[in-house]
Amino acid sequence: MSEMLVVGSIGIDTLHVHNKKHEGVLGGSATYGALAGSLFSKVQLVGVVGQDFPDEVVQKLRDRGVDVQGLEVTTGKTFHWEGRYADDFSSRETLATELNVLADFQPKVPEAYRKTQYVMLGNIMPHLQISVLDQMEGPSFVIADTMNFWIDSKREDLERLLERVHVLVINDEEARQLARVHNLVHAGRVLQKMGPSMVIVKKGEHGALLFDNEELFSAAALPLDHVADPTGAGDSFAGGMLGYLAQTGETNHDALRRAVIYGTVAASFCVEGVGIERLTDVSAKDIDDRFEQVRRLVHFS
Amino acid sequence: MSEMLVVGSIGIDTLHVHNKKHEGVLGGSATYGALAGSLFSKVQLVGVVGQDFPDEVVQKLRDRGVDVQGLEVTTGKTFHWEGRYADDFSSRETLATELNVLADFQPKVPEAYRKTQYVMLGNIMPHLQISVLDQMEGPSFVIADTMNFWIDSKREDLERLLERVHVLVINDEEARQLARVHNLVHAGRVLQKMGPSMVIVKKGEHGALLFDNEELFSAAALPLDHVADPTGAGDSFAGGMLGYLAQTGETNHDALRRAVIYGTVAASFCVEGVGIERLTDVSAKDIDDRFEQVRRLVHFS
Backbone phi, then psi, for B48, in 5-degree steps? Predict the structure, then answer.
């Protein structure tokens, strides 16, 4: 089993779901990515929090096998996001974004992490994602996520980043926006030409598409009869996927397809709880069962 | 091989796609359903057209193995629909609907069709779908489609119909509307309780979900790099699906899953051409190849 490194945002969120307000919820792309990754592999975390960040949360991460040597605690408050979801989760409204200590974040990769081969660059400013790669000693497998805001405002940085990653994980609307093409098949191919040899287009409840150098792979998402909170689903997908690859040490086409399914499995657990509550309460058997459930879901003879 | 009967609308459409206007395009739910069904099975058509309906189109249907004994030609003009699609096919605008001879349609099932076991009730006024069942001698497998307009305006008729069909084929938004539940898994289960033991929720480019008495089945749609015209995709799905079942004479769970895939295959051909042009130009090998392509698309080991 190899380690994986996760960098991204770490935050304390306030979430409004189903007319209920949840305060002090641990969030951020690195948090979800690390916890999902930890279902499969040892995880090294690089991120920044403020002095208000609860010690018991750090301990919770440690308990899940997350190495927090790269977790920087600095003067100020932890990044905060507040959002409200529509009852049907078809949209969400951002009520507050307070960057706080994230505004001056300069990721520092500890010496002990620099040879790690599997790297997840969670959603964060693209030039910071690049600065992490600059500190690494040639990782063999780098997954990056991004968001519409950076595509709009930091396209050049993003394009430089894409030349250095192996897998871009991106949602369908952002894939269209970044590729400047509406048809998803074309968009995936355009994004591959921008650098990453593999592109995974996340379609939320509709699953994901994997573009590599072989035939297209369409992964179904598990239709869930209850969604508690969609926050972190995409980050859990990327973290779970990379965690599986780090665990097995394989990155061939068949392993990738399985990894995409493990990513959807991790995301399905994530959305069943508010914040990280379900993701930190998943057994190896739960994961295996759900993987087999996806297999039965799509099987035809 | 058994026959299948298709009833529904038959129209002459005007379509605006990709800034091009196509006039005199053969359309209607029965037309697409019959032509897709004819890829697999003998088809009996029940519908009405006006005196303006071109003889060569009737011949075209005959050439595809469609029995047109139930095609009524009456005084007046054929049903006409005109619509414009957004460039990305995310929406469409109806520019004209002229019911014409469809306004007074009373489906008459020819004597020779009354023992047919496989019946597709294409989208049309629900009381007319019921009147077809009243004329049949206990068909063993009835698929019905409907639309938002009837859910709004003819819910009671629709509920009476649902008690008498085996499979409801419905798109995701309409499933939510008819079931009055947002979550799709719940909606499917609610619809099953309204009568049909099987419910298929069509999700367009995202595939379809099959609810029966076994575990849920999620069928991927083929990601297409070119869509010429989405008109008739849903009707082609239902027709292709029923045609496959009629061809094989099986309706067990495994056959149903395969039938759903054949439905998505028929729909994928449908949208590659304007109107029926691609659907009438498909070989048995094309169908087999695409079925195998779907298998590879979703396979993981």
Answer: -130, 140
B187: confidence class by pLDDT, cuts 50, 70, 90:
very high
Q: Which residues of B touch A219 (CB under 8 A)?
A: 298, 300
Helix axes B29-37, B55-63, angle to 10 degrees: 30
Give pLDDT tens digits for A176-216.
Answer: 999 999 999 999 999 999 999 999 999 999 999 999 999 99
pLDDT digits (tens, 9 = 90+) for A64-99: 999 999 999 999 999 999 999 998 888 899 999 999
Q: Which has the closest alpha carbon to A9: A78, A94, A111? A: A78
ipTM of the complex: 0.93
User: B174: closest CA among B234, B231, B225?
Assistant: B234
Is pTM beyond 0.90? Reply is yes
- Cβ of B223 within 8 Å of Cβ of A257? The answer is no
Neighbours of A156 (CB within 10 A): 9
> What is the residue-wise DSSP string for B66-90?
EEEEEEEEESSPPEEEEEEE-TTSS
H or E stretch covering A118: strand A118-121
* A300 chain-B contacts, CB cut-off 8 A: 217, 219, 254, 257-258, 260-261, 295
Q: What angle in degrees, to the nearest 10, is found between the helix axes of B253-270 and B29-37?
A: 120
B154 vs B125: CA distance, rounded Å: 8
Q: How far apart are CA A247 and CA A245, in angstroms?
A: 5
What is the C-alpha separation between B106 and B103, in angstroms, rounded? 9
Nearest alpha-carbon partner for B242 in B250, B232, B230:
B250
Looking at chain B, which residue has its C-alpha nearest residue A87? Answer: B182
Q: How many CB pairs under 8 A join A and B?
A: 85
